[in-house]
Structures are given as structure tokens and as C-alpha cells.
């Protein structure tokens, strides 16, 4: 469904991605594990066309994404929920959510239906729809960020570090929602440092270091890999 083949990315003379090859099949929940600076966010930004890849191919349902504008990529069904939430703090929860539906702005009925689905996923957001997004707790802000991404009606959802800075109970709630989204038919590519929580819900996983994919496999095999345990889980 979503395939990266020998993808490279440069920032000036710095090479951030070195021939990355990975894929997420239809309906899969695939986890990308790696430390800060490993290249997880760069993979997602490159998939979103921000900026475009400097080498290789990114295909979605056999459609080449490299060279498309970011808005065109969203229209194809690739929606990116960025690290750090990137909300508009002074705007209401509702307005933040509706910004995610901009590419579908003419379809009011469809947007209302999707908004109802987001409020089912996150009932607290329905209660606080008129509240400024910046006044919410960190966990609730992450819910807004995921909800905004869902308003784009993703076929493939790129979630970048959704557990970052959240309390363990909130992490559990967020990961349960990610599972629900995936089970409803959305392909999910999840970038995470929280390997234990991520591998518990994943179908497959990749490990990235220094802009290179160094391991891939099913969650059980990676859970039992001593290098992965030492780096991301702990003995």
C-alpha cells in the first residue's frame, strides 16, 4: 500500500536518510522504532513532501508521491500527525479539528460525519470543543492532534511520537485509540521511542539508526532481540 524504496533525504550537505526501504501493507499497523535523531520524523516529512525525497521512490497504491505537492499527497489519503502536536493554541478545539478537513472543505456532510467519529473516539473533545486547544492537558492536546489528522480521512495515517511527554495512563488510552483506528480499516505507520507499548499493538516493526533501517521483523522477534531490548526496552 505505502512503499519506500531506496529513499534518500539531504539537508544541504547532510544526508539524513540513506536508502530507506520499508512498506506498510493495507490494514497493517507498522511501527518504526528509533532514538531521537535516528530519522523517524524525516521519513514521515519526506513522505508528506516536506521536503521531497532527494532520491528513491515513495509509492501509495502504485501512485508515485515523490514530486507531488503536500496538499496532493493528503488528497491521495496520506495524513501526517506530527511530533509535538503542532496545534494552534489560541484557537478552539473545534477549529483545530476542522483545519484537518481543509482538503474536503466542500463536503460539509462528510466533514460532519467524520467529526462525529472523532468525538466518538475522544468524547472529552466533544465536551471541550469551544475551549482553546492550548488550555488542554498534554494528553488532550494529543487527542486533538490525532483527531485533526483523522479529519483528513486518511487511508494511511503517519503518527509521529504520539506518546511523547504523556503519563503512562494517557499513553495506554492513546494506544487503545490507535488500535481502534487501525481495526476500522486505516493503515497506520507509527514512529515511537516507547518500544514496549508500540510493539504490543504492532503487526510488524522496523528499527532505524542513523537514517538507515537496521532491523525489521514481527513484534515478538524484536521484543526478544537483545540489542532492541537493551536500546529501547531495558532488560
From TrEMBL:
CDD domains: ABC_TM1139_LivF_branched (cd03224). PROSITE patterns: ABC_TRANSPORTER_1 (PS00211), ABC_TRANSPORTER_2 (PS50893). The keyword Nucleotide-binding applies. It comes from the Bacteria. Keywords: Amino-acid transport, ATP-binding, Nucleotide-binding, Transport. Residues 2-235 form the ABC transporter domain. GO terms for molecular function: ATP binding; ATP hydrolysis activity; branched-chain amino acid transmembrane transporter activity. GO terms for biological process: L-amino acid transport. Belongs to the ABC transporter superfamily. This is ABC transporter ATP-binding protein. It comes from Ramlibacter lithotrophicus.
Amino acid at each position: 500500500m505505502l512503499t519506500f524504496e531506496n529513499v534518500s533525504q539531504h539537508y544541504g550537505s547532510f544526508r539524513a536518510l540513506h536508502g530507506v526501504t520499508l512498506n506498510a501493507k493495507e490494514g497493517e499497523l507498522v511501527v518504526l522504532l528509533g532514538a531521537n535523531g535516528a530519522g523517524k520524523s524525516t521519513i514521515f516529512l519526506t513522505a508528506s513532501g516536506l521536503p521531497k525525497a532527494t532520491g528513491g521512490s515513495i509509492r501509495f497504491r502504485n501512485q508515485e508521491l515523490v514530486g507531488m505537492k503536500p496538499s496532493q499527497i493528503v488528497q491521495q489519503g496520506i495524513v501526517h500527525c506530527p511530533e509535538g502536536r503542532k496545534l494552534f493554541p489560541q484557537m478552539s478545539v473545534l477549529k483545530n479539528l476542522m483545519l484537518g478537513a481543509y482538503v474536503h472543505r466542500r463536503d460539509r456532510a462528510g466533514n460532519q460525519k467524520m467529526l462525529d467519529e472523532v468525538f466518538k473516539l475522544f468524547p472529552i473533545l466533544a465536551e471541550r470543543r469551544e475551549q482553546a486547544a492550548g488550555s488542554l492537558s498534554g494528553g488532550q492536546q494529543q487527542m486533538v492532534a490525532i483527531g485533526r489528522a483523522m479529519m483528513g480521512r486518511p487511508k494511511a495515517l503517519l503518527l509521529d511520537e504520539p506518546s511523547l511527554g504523556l503519563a503512562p495512563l494517557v499513553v495506554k488510552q492513546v494506544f487503545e485509540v490507535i488500535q481502534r483506528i487501525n481495526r476500522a480499516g486505516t493503515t497506520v505507520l507509527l514512529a515511537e521511542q516507547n518500544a514496549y507499548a508500540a510493539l504490543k499493538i504492532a503487526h510488524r516493526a522496523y528499527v532505524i539508526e542513523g537514517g538507515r533501517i537496521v532491523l525489521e521483523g514481527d513484534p515478538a522477534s524484536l521484543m526478544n532481540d537483545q540489542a532492541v531490548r537493551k536500546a529501547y526496552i531495558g532488560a
